[in-house]
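Query structure, 110 tokens:
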């Protein structure tokens, strides 16, 4: 599924979700920026290095990621806590947003 490039949905909602992918994957094993770029593109996000690398740098400054000498990013303890919090929120949101709506009560028979 592709959002309209440059749309408000992409900018305001989808782009911040990249960080969830990044936290998730960095928690599985150390990642390099290029791999993350490809991974996000496979999910259908339009990602450029000019957006991804500053995001990785910001997440490192925030303390969620640690960059090692070979340029790989891995999740820190703070990143793990952030991911756990986001997971809980997403699970709750998912239940609410995808829950089938209760059917309207049938009108009483005449
Ligand atoms: Zn992913």
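Result returned for the query:
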């Amino acid at each position: 599924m592709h959002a309209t490039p440059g749309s408000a949905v992409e900018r305001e909602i989808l782009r911040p979700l990249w960080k969830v992918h990044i936290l998730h994957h960095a928690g599985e094993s150390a990642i390099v920026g290029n791999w993350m770029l490809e991974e996000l593109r496979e999910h259908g996000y339009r990602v450029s290095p000019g957006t991804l690398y500053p995001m990785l740098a910001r997440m490192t400054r925030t303390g969620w990621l640690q960059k090692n000498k070979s340029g790989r990013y891995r999740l820190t303890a703070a990143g793990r806590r952030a991911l756990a919090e986001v997971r809980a929120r997403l699970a709750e949101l998912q239940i609410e947003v995808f829950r089938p709506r209760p059917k309207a009560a049938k009108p009483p028979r005449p």
